[in-house]
Amino acid sequence: MSYRVVIPARYASTRLPGKPLVDIGGLPMVVRVMQRALESTAEVVVVATDDQRVADAVVAAGGDVEMTRPEHPSGSDRAMEVAECRGWHDEEILVNVQGDEPLIPPAVIDQVAGLLASAPGAGAATLSEPINAVADVFDPNIVKVVASLRGRAIYFSRAPMPWHRDAFANGPPPALAGNWKRHIGIYAYRVATLRRFVRLPQSGIEQAEALEQLRLLDNDIDIVVADAVAPVPGGVDTEADAERVRATLASG
Questions:
Q1: Could you give the maximum distance between any two Cα atoms of the chain, in Å?
Q2: 74 Rama class: left (phi>0) / alpha (psi -120 to 50) / beta
Q3: Beta-carbon neighbour count of residue 49 at 10 Å?
Q4: In angstroms, what CA-CA distances link 246 with 12, 29, 111, 117, 166?
Q5: By three-state DSSP, how is residue 92 classified?
Q6: Strand locations in 60-217, DSSP E?
Q7: Overall pTM > 0.70
Q8: Which of 107, 198, 234, 247 has the fewest CB atoms within 10 Å, i.e. is most exposed?
Q9: What angle do helix axes 29-38 and 106-117 make, rounded to 10 degrees?
Q10: Quick check: 213 and 203 in contact, CB under 8 A?
Q11: Which is it for the CA torsion 96, 99, 103, 106, positive or negative?
Q12: Are 58 and 30 within 8 A, CB to CB?
């Protein structure tokens, strides 16, 4: 299987200014992510950025970088520009690895590419993992996913989903008795699907939930979902997140 990785890395961030260059154990975060991706079996790993400072950091670390337009509304749009600039063909598999996931396991990157390669009827692939804490089910910052028996995404939501009518009748229960899944924000696309996706207008449910993957479902584009083969630590959105990741790296 051949596939390519794009790591979108936008410099601006409201909660963590200059996020791609935040120091994570002596290296810029974007370099940490790139190193993880380079440990996968991807044929090519490209960092896509709109900022020369990020590009300089990637080049200094021996990485491949593509300067992209600053006005892109999402990482998906930035990844598509890379595919167009590099001339990748429609059936090529492109994995979008978020630039704030410095601990992402390389095996997970391989997995999501293989998942799409093995599902010719799907337009995209993504991953999930079990939720074990009641608070996480009710946390709107943790996106939940429900999939069909054949592994196709039915819906993504910030709300507790599925809603257990009896167990949740009086609010959050003391313990979970069911099968809830956290969505892991890594995607594999065929280039043709990604091109179609970024050209589609935002859908109503996408705007309501602020989840761009709902645009795919709203336009009848199947997303295949599977549980990740390895635990995927949370990404870095705040300085507290960065401290957590630094502590994890320091502990070995």
A1: 56
A2: beta
A3: 26
A4: 21, 10, 26, 34, 41
A5: coil
A6: 64-67, 93-96, 124-130, 144-147, 153-157, 181-190
A7: yes
A8: 247
A9: 60
A10: no
A11: positive
A12: yes
Amino acid at 214: L
Q: pLDDT tens digit string along 59-99?
A: 999 999 999 999 999 999 999 999 999 999 999 999 999 99
| One-letter amino acid for residue 190 of the chain | R
Euclidean distance between CA atoms 47 and 53, whole angstroms? 12
Count other Cβ atoms within 10 Å, centred on residue 69.
9
Select from 88, 94, 68, 63 the least CA-distant residue to 9: 68
Do the Cβ atoms of 179 and 130 come closer than 8 Å? yes
User: Collapsing DSSP states into helix, strand and coil, what is residue 120?
Assistant: coil
Checking if the pLDDT of 248 tops 80, the result is yes
- Report how far residue 158's alpha carbon sits from residue 144's, in angstroms, rounded to the nearest whole number: 6
Q: What are phi and psi of 128, to 5 degrees?
A: -145, 175
Main-chain phi, psi angles of 60, to 5 degrees:
-60, -30
CB 83 within 8 A of CB 194: yes
